[in-house]
Fold each of these.
Amino acid sequence: MVFFNWATMQMAAKIVYYGPGLCGKTTNLSYIYAKTAPSSRGEMVSLETETDRTLFFDLLPLEVGKVGGFRTRLQLYTVPGQVFYNTTRKLVLKGVDGIVFVADSQRPMADANLESFTNLKENLQELGIDFASVPLVLQYNKRDLKNILTVDELNAALNPDGTYQYFEAVATQGIGVFETLKAITKATLKTLRARMAAQETRLEEVRPPPAPTPAPPGPQNHFLPRSPRQRRRAGASTTATGGGAHSSSGPPACGGAFAQPGHSSSRPSFGAPGLGA
Ligand SMILES: Nc1nc2c(ncn2[C@@H]2O[C@H](COP(=O)(O)OP(=O)(O)O)[C@@H](O)[C@H]2O)c(=O)[nH]1
Ligand SMILES: [Mg+2]
């Protein structure tokens, strides 16, 4: 549900963390929240039961600075893993722009990972979203535990053609968390930029041809915006279809997002300016 506002030059994209129950989706978002400068993030909304399992979803809004001239915000969501929350999962997936599939590396979770991956594909299909068109990265989480599947085994099950980027992670320690986020952000913004360019082209195509003998600009229309881009800049905004969970309120813009106070020096910094490159 990418959201463009050409008048204010703002853009928002929706990234969903998907995966079986207890694989570590909420832990990813909690870590990102904890390590992101308060000026670059909104409040994390978590709806949990007393047993610490996500009942509905988590939501974390993040400002990532300017991309292609647009002040850009990411909305990070998690889905509830339990089988009986499929309606909620579908709702969260509506209008998704990028997906992180978090797999639980523990050997007994092999089937649950596959079931969840299949469920993701089914839900996207039901929503009329082409699975192959949505940027996706894999995160193999809980690498710190014993009795885990090898990376080769995980790839054989979830990534047999090597289509997806994958990251080993220990979300509880923050290992692999920002690497994963950076990869999905890059892939998502790249896709959105391509879509924006296509939209631009379509708008150019529908522009009426110039009149054979154009009248000289009179004083009244001299300052009227005439190209589609100018018209949009003059106040029109476009919102793609989708979940509609965007709110115009939120944290103030902040260029240098992901400035993480006190983050360990071993983790690469996640500088916003390079994201759109
Ligand atoms: N050992 C270990 N535990 C983890 C890791 N990531 C998450 N957990 C734990 O797994 C449990 C479920 O995590 P949670 O993020 O709530 O899972 P979700 O259902 O996918 O949102 C929690 O007790 C986490 O502390 C990890 O990398 N290693
Ligand atoms: Mg959760």
Amino acid sequence: MNKQFDVIVIGAGPGGYMAAIRAAQLGMSVACIDEWKNSKDGPALGGTCTNVGCIPSKALLQSSENFDHASHHLADHGISVSGLTLDVTKMLGRKDTVVKQNNDGILYLFKKNKVSFFHGRGSFVRTVDGGYEIKVASAAEEALVGKQIIVATGSTARALPGTPFDEELILSNDGALRMGAVPKRLGLIGSGVIGLELGSVWRRLGSEVSILEALPTFLGAVDQQIAKEAYKAFVKQGLKIELGVQVGEIRTTKKGKEAQVSVAWTNAKGEGQTLEVDKLIVSIGRVPNTIGLDALAVGLKLDERGAIVVDEDCRTSLPGVWAVGDVVRGPMLAHKAEEEGVAVAERLAGQHGHVNFNTIPWVIYTSPEIAWVGQTEQQLKAAGRAYKSGTFPFLANGRARALGDTTGMVKMLADAASDEILGVHIVGPMASELIAECVVAMAFRASSEDIARICHAHPSLSEATKEAALAVAQRALNF
Ligand SMILES: Cc1cc2nc3c(=O)[nH]c(=O)nc-3n(C[C@H](O)[C@H](O)[C@H](O)COP(=O)(O)OP(=O)(O)OC[C@H]3O[C@@H](n4cnc5c(N)ncnc54)[C@H](O)[C@@H]3O)c2cc1C
């Protein structure tokens, strides 16, 4: 007899596991299927985010930042360090422990909320009556029947055509997060969010990092005033960034223990160049993952990118089947996946699940960090919207001076007539935390004057946000 559930979730990444927990909280019987395996072939819940994405990258960003501080910045505080060494194996071990804590945490939450977990690949199977059930391919094959199905199968790294990842020399995010030694020369194709974070990790640990980016603009999706400030900081730190390039043939050569990658490329002036590196990270975007679902067999509609087609409430083309997260349209961000997962579970319970796509924050965890919410100045200009802008540099913020980290600024954009905040863009220390206040403000449709009138603790980096709000009305007090 097939096991019956109110809801079956395929995928235990942020979209899937949050949907499963919320549905269980709302009284539904829930199964969640995930195929990710840890090094011992056991389950590793949390998807890309926990295993090879958000969590391990932030663990290594923290470790590498600590190393960078000890190497270059502690002396400014009168602290001298001698005999500083780097144990990459230990650093990777710590990262793996952090990942495992998160894997185990999700399993614990499933038990606490009575979500039944199945380890294996879930795929749609047509039944004789024209419906479908979900087959779980694992050691003990099982068939599950659900009144509602939520697909949350995420995404995978996009490879360059003709250059598959070998995770030895040509690395995706997976291989880039487990290099056993610091490569002397590291190449990176793509200067997006993930590429910049991974490049920063290894640069801080001592690699010479060269980035080749096809687009002519650095961080084209970011407000360009902020992107320019970040670009200056990254170049000063030693990242070599070439924009507007065309990548040609990529060859790997191995002679005994010596191996290298050679990348033929053309610069923006059309001149042929060659980049020779010890490892190459390819970070040119991610592809929605429907491999193994047998989606087409049951008529689940995909778009030209391979993403599952959904309406604004995450309903697919099949009745009773929903899809959330990286496998559908919209930004590929863990918190966007989570919001959609929770909203779908609430819709299944007859509630009004809601995702506000206008207030989804973005963060790039480099140093300086970059974070934003809402529209950029370029978007407002293109839309012909009248706006006011206020900026405040961290150079004039007492806490930033005390931290010894005064790079960057807060920039606030508000409607010229109503003063409603339309976007906030930050490059600088703790931008990832500072943006939360701005997300709340935008969710409540606050004006810049609202932020300017709110008391902010002194000395704190958040005073820069208040001052940017004051600057919108041309009355910054500390600059
Ligand atoms: C290096 C890196 C850093 C990142 N950093 C950030 C960050 O700082 N902040 C942020 O918001 N986002 C970040 N992201 C993006 C984030 O990881 C994704 O947006 C997020 O994981 C998407 O969640 P999801 O639930 O849609 O899918 P995923 O996390 O990809 O999870 C999908 C799960 O489904 C499973 N699965 C797939 N098919 C099947 C099947 N047929 N049967 C069973 N199981 C299946 C997979 O094994 C996986 O466990 C980062 C990504 C990378 C690569």
